Amino acid sequence: MVIDSKTMASVEEEALLGQDSEEENSELSDDELQEAFAAGLLKPGMNVLVDKPKKFANNVEGMKQCVADFRKDLPWVERLDLTNLPAANIISQAEEKASAPAAGELDADDDFQREMFFYRQAQATVLEALPLLNRHSIATKRPEDYFAEMAKSDQHMQKIRKKLISKQMIMERSEKAKKLREQRKFGKKVQIEVIQKRQQEKKAMMSAVKKYQKGMTDKLEFLEGDQKMNKESSQGSKKAVNKKGPSAKRKFKDQKFGFGGKKSGKKWNTKESYNDVSGFRAKIAHGKGGKKGKGGKQNKRPGKSVRKKMKNRS
C-alpha cells in the first residue's frame, strides 16, 4: 500500500484547522453564555441533571455458577469450619432461672446479651471441635519443651534497648541543664537584690553626708549604721533565745530527774554555817586525835634507812 506524502500533509492541515475551529466555537459559546447571563436570560432551574434509572440484574444462573466454583469437596481437617448453636447456659439452669433468649429473640442493641451469645457460641464450638481434633491426631496443647522463636531478633532488641537508654540519658541531661539554669537565674536574682540594696544604702549615706556638710543635721549616726544593725540583730537573736526558754530535752530531763538546783558555791560559808559549831572537835582540830599503838603513842612508819637495816638484819 502506497500513501502519498501530499495527502498526508493535507490530512494533518485539516486536523489542525478542525482543532482551531473547535477552540473558536468553544470560545464563542463561552462568550455567548456570559452575554446571556449578563442579560438575565439564564435562570435557575432551566438546566436540570437527571439520573438515569439503575438497572438491576438478577442473574441466578451466574450466581449458581460462582457458588459452584467456590465450593470444594475438602476434608474437615483442611477446612476447620463449624456451624452450631450456642451452648446451654448452665448457671441459669442450676439457678432455675428463665432460659436465655434464642438467636431470633436476641436483642441486637443489648450489648450484654449479644456478647453472651457470642461467648456461648464460641464455647459450643470448642466443645465440638476438641474431640474432632483429637480424633484426627491434631495436637491441641503446647508441649512443655516448646521453644517459640521471637518475632524480633536479639540484635534488634539490643538496638531498641540502647536507643531507650540513650533517650533516658538525654532526658536526664536536659533536666540537669534546666535545674542549673534555674539555679543561675536564682543566683543572679539574689545578686541583683544585694547590689540594689548596697546602692540604696550608699545613696542614703551620701544624702546624709550632704545634709551634714550643709549643716542641716548635727548627728553622725549614719557612720555607725552597720554596727547598729549588727547590734540590733544580735540583741534580737538573744531576745528570741530568751523568749524561747529551755529546750524540750531540758524539760524532759527536769521532769525525769527533777531540778538539781544550784551547783556552784555549795562550799561557801554563810552566816548560819559560820555560827554553827556543833560539829567542832578540839582534839581533831589541834592534832591530838588519831589512832594510837600499844604504848599510847601514835603509830609512825619507820624511815627508809631504818627499813633497809631491818631488811639486812633479817
Automatic annotation (TrEMBL):
Region (Disordered): 1-30, 227-314
Domain of life: Eukaryota
Nucleus keyword on record: yes
Major subcellular location class: nucleus
Entry annotated with the keyword Nucleus: yes
GO annotation (BP), single: rRNA processing
Compartment(s) where it occurs, according to its Swiss-Prot or TrEMBL record: Nucleus, Nucleolus
Keywords: Coiled coil, Nucleus, Ribosome biogenesis
Compositionally biased spans, kind Basic residues: 240-253, 283-314
Biased amino acid composition, Acidic residues: 11-30
A Gene Ontology cellular-component term: nucleolus
Pfam families, per database record: Ebp2
Family, per entry: Belongs to the EBP2 family.
Function: Required for the processing of the 27S pre-rRNA.
Protein name according to UniProt: EBNA1 binding protein 2
Lineage, top ranks: Eukaryota, Metazoa, Chordata, Craniata, Vertebrata
